[in-house]
Amino acid sequence: MNTLFKRLACALAIIAAAMMASVASASELVAQLQPTPAAISPIATDAAMLAATWAGPRVVSVGDNGVILLSDDRGLSFRQAQGVPVSSMLTGVSFADPKNGWAVGHWGAILATTDGGEKWRVQRLAMAEDRPLFAVHFFDAQRGVSVGLWSLVLVTQDGGKSWTEQKVSPKDQGLSDLNLINLFPDAKGGVFATAERGRLLHSADAGRTWDYLSTGYEGSLWCGVQLSDGTLLVGGQRGTLLRSEDGGQSWVRVPLGSKSSLTSIDANGLEVMVVGLDGLQKHSLDGGRTFQEATAPSKESLTAVLAAEDGKWLLFSRHGIVPQTK
After folding, report:
1. Residues 177, 175, 91, 49: is their CA dihedral positive or negative?
2. Helices in the chain by DSSP H: which ranges?
3. Model confidence over 107-116: pLDDT tens digits?
4. Which CATH number is 228's domain given?
5. For the chain, how many structural domains are there in total?
6. For residue 33, which of 156, 130, 165 has the smallest C-alpha distance?
């Protein structure tokens, strides 16, 4: 073995040893990680908000840095929840009743509240894995489901005291690792999940088994809603909005006149609002057959919309709460 080769082999050995030590140190560091509570901030209402829901008469919105915002005046003003035990991004929220709610997000976090969102406690945390959860839905105070990265599905039958990973089993195994992005309820007590590759999943048994529906679209679907007449609307990348009147067996594309991606859809009866990036905001009065530009569109990239009373819509964005207009 010549001198140059010896030096190279020695250098590689040192690098390999250093890498092994680094991996060991990283593993030890991860094991020691503890979540940092969300900081209380005077500008919390400017944090990116990613999801919102009603908890009885209260609005609860979740977003970046563990910020949770509460409104007790139907969305006119918001304040920050004081007791949030994580500072990771929160991506989904669901309430079974005015008091009992759950929020999910990065670090695989699942948080629960029993006082309408004032204080939260950790039910699940997987910081070493950091397989984000993107959405959560509770059917009642005991049964819930959360979905996330690479077809992660977690279900609970005891109000979140225990969460069990539920493996998905699509007929096409090439679909087994789709990211599951959003959840919305059906009219019969089941739930839909929007996913990548134009797939819409449906579960009639609280998340234990899933049917895969193809919309004919190949991009990611980010949001959806079922209207009071059973019509399904799902939206996603590049201004894609799809509509089905037969439970998802066939779909037609609804023209929006925009290439901006849709981030959220909500409905009040057959009245529909869709919002998205680049200020996209379209409104329908005919069950999603046709859409018009909203009367007071926002220029901000919108992240969530929530139907309110008197035909109003609450809007949330990457820069926080969008003030209501008169």
Report:
1. positive
2. 3-32
3. 999 999 999 9
4. 2.130.10.10
5. 1
6. 130
